[in-house]
């Protein structure tokens, strides 16, 4: 009987190797040979799934974004409520999580962002979010303000952009060890408390 190969698991293993190499030594340290060594596989297997460094790094970046989104979704589910203010906090706090995986994903994003100087395809890696995410966040802000007795101010989309920019910056600080997760959480909560005042 032929052996069943889990191609998705193999790709995931190679991406994990990219993340590890980039976090340790920057994206310049990532080569197909080093990825093969890190993952404990042959060069042929790496090239079977990724014919070029560009396709490998791009997939690693795409999967990092998906992993961050999954962290946000998990944080929202763990909050166990539909209260817009609580959901908003859960979303933003997911970027400054104290867990090792969150820090690793942020450090990988930083490594890729450094490449953006010479590679325009990497420019959006640390952007505060797409239009859909900003629209969702703006909606949560407006709903949370209304629940607290305030009226929509019309600046929710701009405030949403600021929220994600702040959370990303704080996440970078946490990932680099410049700020403790608890200190970052206090800054973020202070900002949200002021935003949600009626």
- How much beta, percentage-wise? under 5%
User: What is the gyration radius calculated from CA atoms?
Assistant: 19 Å
Shape: elongated
Give the number of helices: 9
Unreliable stretches (pLDDT < 50, length at least 5) are: none
How many beta strands in the DSSP annotation?
0
The overall pLDDT average reads 87
Order of helices and strands: HHHHHHHHH
Largest sheet: none
- Determine the structural class based on helices, strands and strand pairing: mainly alpha
User: How far is it from the N-terminal to the C-terminal residue, by CA?
Assistant: 67 Å
Q: Helicity range of the residues?
A: over 70%
Give your account of this protein's structure.
The protein is mainly α and about 200 residues long. It has helices spanning about 5-25, 30-40, 45-50, 55-80, 85-95, 100-115, 130-145, 155-175, 180-195. α1 (about 5-25) crosses α2 (about 30-40) and α5 packs across α7. The radius of gyration is 19 Å and the shape is elongated. The model has no long low-confidence stretch (mean pLDDT about 85).
